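Pasting two entries for a bug report.
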Amino acid sequence: METQEIERILKQSLNLDEVYVQGENAHFGVIVVSETLSKLSKLKQQQTIYAPLMEHFTSGEIHALTIKTFSPEKWKLERMLNVVS
């Protein structure tokens, strides 16, 4: 499965400000920026992100998915801190 396909699925299914996907060989990591998702518990965030991708887990196209979620403000801070370091 291509990273662009995962991005497309998540963007179409969820109300996200930004989404970034990296990985290969069925192991992927996503960074999701969303004010709405950032207000949910970590478990609910993961369930919400997994839901539109579930058929790809079942088929084996996705074996592992690491999820990091940020509010827009925390994402801005995260990017600034990574640029400085």
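Entry 2 (this is the one that rendered wrong in the viewer):
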Amino acid sequence: MRLRKVKGAAETIAAHPNIVVQNEKELKGNWQSVFEKEQPLYIEVGMGKGQFVIGMAQKNPHLNFIGIEKFDSVMVRALEKVIEAGELPNLKLLKIDADELTEIFEENEVAGVYLNFSDPWPKPRHAKRRLTHENFLKLYQTIMKEDGAIRFKTDNRLLFEYSLASLSQYGMILQDVALDLHKREDLEWNVMTEYEQKFSAKGQPIYRLEAVFAQEK
């Protein structure tokens, strides 16, 4: 995936440590300290320009959220949207790669994980880069509470089919699967991403699933 560089992005990000956390490794096991209130913590891995995680924070003031993105040029756009949205004491941003999750979060520290319109990495040799590959599932399982869920949305049918198989083979329990999310009538809870708005407006189906890790007996 080729991204257009944004001039001054790194400097802009560094200038807002109150929104984009800078000392993330020092906060492992103590993430609640960066929020105004101690509340269940949810993360979005690969937040893009931030519309979803901002919307979730606005809609759910009783929960804390962290939007995670690894690219400066994308992170700075999300930062701009957070600033425009105004004060959100239950939202922070974090610039890391997804494979660093267990270095940043303690075991059982996260209540749930959102994956929205992740890069499909369509070539078979790149399967390990997909955010629903078993290598990433292990990371999510480590940092999430036992009853935590992964919630995944995409417009890419092949990635969705791959993800269904990957999660099932890992032993996860699928609780909710939608092959065309926007045909549902009970969508007041759904917060759309930028991509979701774009593709659903064109009539493309949006695929969604929720899954939890099987508990050992």
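Dev reply: Rendering is fixed now. As a check, the viewer should reflect this: The chain has one domain: 9-213.
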